[in-house]
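To make this tangible, this section ends with a sequence with its structure tokens:
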Amino acid sequence: MKFYLTALGALALTTGVATAGGIDRSGQSILSIFEKGNYAEFSFGSISPSVGGTAIAVPVPGLNGASSGDMAGDYTQFSLSVKTALTDSFDLGLIIDQPFGANVSYPTGTAYYAQGSVATLKTTALTAIAKYRLANNISFLGGLRYQTMQAAADIPFIPSSGYAVDSDTAADFGYVVGVAYEKPEIALRVALTYNSKITHDFTTVETSVLQGYVPTETATPVVTPQSVNLEFQSGVAKDTLVFGSVRWVDWNNFEINPPLYPPATALVSYDSDTVTYSLGVGRRLSENWAAAITLGYEDPVGGFSSNLGPTDGKKSISLGGTYTRDNMKISAGLSYVEIGDTATTLDGINTAANFTGNSAIAVGIKVGFTF
């Protein structure tokens, strides 16, 4: 069977929206290296999360039962991949993506304790990857990843009233290694890849009421997490493909904790690792058209979530289609994500607010060329 439907492109962009492991966004897929011959693709996605919570109603100043309003800003994602087949067995590729990110903005005028809080986190990664295929259809993969990261936050709420932090843009290296097995006659491929952690040593400028609002230069280390991706596909009938993935991310050692941040908890941290699953079915409808449906699930980890990332787990459904003509294929996808419920805290012990009934909608498009 020579029916290849590489996860219908844009779905890889949209099924991980908004909540995959907190700030996990791109999923760090390397599937473009498996495209035939010389290949280039560009993906773009627009994500609109709706995330809000309600403070608990207890006689504590600031916790008056007020609603937060929608605190998760819309954002866009892009990726660019180019690969070349140097020989029948050896391929080289470059991938640009945005693996991690956050865009938080609590509206003002709500009487919610965190109103006016804003935070951003931006990353861009360039991955150079090589694949060498043996005669038995086993391939070995490896490469270097160059990642930049920048973060900022302004936190006016208790107990850190009057705190702000802004970092420089740090750039550091990591790596990716993997192994894959392919059986082209049934469109079978299984790829296992490991993404290393990357340590960024930021120079941060902190301003705090506890320091008399005097800007203070500090050093803040941040380690983006290691992860493992298992991605697979297989033909199951004529013109029908099953595909999916499992992604584990090691969030246990991730935190953003500038030295002058005063609360008992870190500015951003997670209680546990995350595992995200996806499973889909693709069907070729004609010589030029194919369609797919994908279901996604991420285990909730429990415990408190950060006030700057109040989500825990997810369920998603995605629909996509691909149009192929000559050396070009265009994929588009639409996803609906049900965001898991969670609670936040101010002291690491007691609940400050509950976040329930939240969701996200995403659309994505990818254009690929074989040359």
The chain is about 0% helix and 60% strand. The mean pLDDT is 89.
